[in-house]
Structure to design on (147 residues):
């Protein structure tokens, strides 16, 4: 897999034998790109140490325009099993938790992670599994018209 770096140099890290994927990180201090590959699912995540300076709208735009196209490349031909659907949902919830950040509980005054239902209410767009299924149905329509 050829990667174009965001900064000057890429520093390959050791292969994680437990999960079976490679991690690449930049040596740059302001951004980091982590690529995970496993089976058909390619998961990418942008991590910004300065993420508190970016607005939620900008983070959502970056997620929709940069990350989702990479993750969903070729999803029209995937035959998803429940395990892969769950992994996609877990990935999406992890990214959305990074975008919307934890919130402080009013009663206990402690920070807590947002639950999946709260994330779906805040995001207001179809979840990633529904997007995969709709793209697959659209692709089936194209194939039916061709043949």
């Amino acid at each position: 897999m050829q990667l174009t770096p965001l900064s000057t140099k890429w520093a390959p890290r050791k292969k994680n034998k437990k999960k079976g994927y490679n991690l690449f990180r930049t040596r740059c201090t302001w951004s980091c790109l982590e690529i995970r590959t496993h089976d058909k699912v390619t998961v990418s995540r942008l991590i910004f140490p300065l993420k508190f300076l970016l607005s939620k709208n900008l983070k959502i735009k970056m997620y929709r325009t940069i990350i989702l196209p990479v993750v969903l490349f070729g999803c029209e031909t995937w035959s998803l099993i429940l395990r892969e659907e769950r992994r996609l949902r877990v990935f999406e919830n992890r990214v959305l938790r990074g975008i919307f950040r934890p919130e402080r509980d009013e009663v206990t005054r402690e920070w807590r992670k947002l639950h999946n239902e709260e994330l779906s209410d805040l995001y207001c767009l179809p979840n990633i599994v529904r997007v995969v299924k709709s793209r697959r149905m659209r692709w089936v329509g194209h194939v039916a018209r061709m043949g």
Observations:
- Residues 1-38 form one domain.
- Residues 1-11, 20-49 have pLDDT under 50 and may be disordered.
- Residues 109 and 144 are 56 Å apart (CA to CA).
